[in-house]
Design a protein that fits this description.
The structure holds 2 protein chains of 2 kinds. Chain A is mainly alpha-helical. Chain A is elongated. Chain A is built from 8 helices and no strands. Chain B is mainly alpha-helical. Chain B is 78% helix and 0% strand. Chain B is built from 8 helices and no strands. In chain B, helix 3 packs antiparallel against helix 5, helix 3 runs antiparallel to helix 8 and helix 7 packs antiparallel against helix 8. The longest helix of chain B is centred in the last third of the chain and has 31 residues. The relative contact order of chain B is 0.15. Classes of the chains: A mainly alpha, B mainly alpha. The interface between A and B is large, with 34 and 37 residues.
Chain lengths: 181, 165
């Protein structure tokens, strides 16, 4: 089932990709990669420092004031989601069959759910009428998960190139991590 | 005078051969991953400090933001060390490419700007209009330097002429 979905998606993208021609011009890929690294830095700077604040760094800074940095982290994420999509839509097999990409998506999913959990559970205590300078325990746990998830995303992203899928031999696992013939 | 003999020697050292040739994920791939994390910490926190100076998150006192500096320095030193290891791995690739020197100059400039910004923040007249103006100018220059350093670093993979001596 999952294998068929992966194969179908790779073929669908290969047949209909609107950006592959553009991305294969001389400088498009390197420029998109540079933007991907700039977005990464913006995301780590904004979200990472907010997470550290929740964990107790710069304790005298109101958490709500620190939260004003978060939109810049979201901008970094938007840059990276867009440029990442350009890579995926150009070389779909290099990503969809790559185990490092699977783990990267998993870590991204955890980071996303974790961020949602922060607003769902800690919004009132952190941004309410009389917020404490010390974040609630739950928010600290969420900050720790956030930092771990984003570092995992970076490591998996950097590892993509060392897990390029080869031709399939033997029985594949839950997800295809090789090029089917 | 050619630096080729030096490059040949460096590439033959055990450390260089380990960085490039070891099948361990902790060798070349791990060092690259650390280099990306250090970049995020150093350039990211510097960028956020610059944005703060330029008016983002005005409720965060600049003096209190200094608490994040150890993280920025940690990222910087992580990348100094991982960067030297990458350089030992592929010295010819880096040292024969002008873009590599551009990257080093931009990082040196960005760190010098950071130190100057910090000195102004610590000074007693940090809120004086003239100081605020200098801070803004330094912050904009810093953002340009970090953006240039990251771009130059990424382009090293596309602009080298020789991989090995």
């Amino acid at each position: 089932m999952l294998h068929a979905a992966q194969i179908w998606l790779v073929h669908a993208i290969e047949r209909h990709s609107p950006v592959a021609t553009l991305m294969r011009t001389h400088w498009a890929w390197p420029i998109a990669e540079s933007l991907h690294f700039l977005g990464l830095s913006l995301l780590v700077g904004a979200i990472g420092s907010f997470d550290l604040r929740l964990l107790g760094v710069a304790r005298r800074v109101p958490i709500a004031a620190m939260h004003r940095l978060v939109p810049w982290g979201i901008l970094g994420f938007a840059i990276n989601a867009s440029t990442g999509l350009l890579f995926l839509l150009t070389e779909p097999d290099q990503y969809l069959y790559n185990p490092s990409f699977h783990f990267k998506l998993l870590a991204l999913g955890i980071a996303g759910v974790n961020a949602g959990l922060f607003y769902a559970t800690s919004y009132r205590q952190v941004f309410g009428a009389s917020p404490s300078l010390d974040a609630p325990r739950r928010a600290k746990m969420i900050a720790l998960v956030s930092l771990t998830a984003w570092i995992t995303v970076i490591v998996c992203g950097r590892m993509l190139t060392f897990y390029r899928p080869g031709d399939c031999v033997g029985t594949p696992g839950v997800l295809l991590t090789c090029q089917p013939r | 005078m050619s630096i080729d003999p030096f490059l040949v020697w460096l590439e033959s050292t055990a450390l260089s051969e380990w960085v490039v040739g070891s099948p361990s994920l902790l060798a070349f791939p791990g060092i690259l991953a650390l280099h990306a994390i250090g970049m995020g910490l150093a350039a990211g926190l510097a960028a956020v400090l610059d944005l703060r100076i330029l008016g983002v998150a005005p409720g965060v006192p600049l003096v209190e933001f200094r608490r994040f500096q150890p993280v920025l320095w940690g990222g910087f030193w992580l990348n100094a060390v991982s960067g030297v290891l990458l350089l030992v791995g592929y010295p010819t690739k880096a040292l024969t490419n002008p873009v590599f020197y551009l990257k080093l100059v931009l990082i040196a400039a960005a760190m010098a700007l950071f130190v100057r910004i910090d000195r102004l923040i610590r000074s007693s007249d940090a809120s004086a209009p003239a100081t605020a103006r200098s801070l803004r100018r330094l912050a904009i220059t810093s953002l340009v330097c970090w953006g240039g350093a990251i771009t130059a670093g990424r382009l090293l993979a596309y602009t080298y002429h020789r991989l090995r001596a």
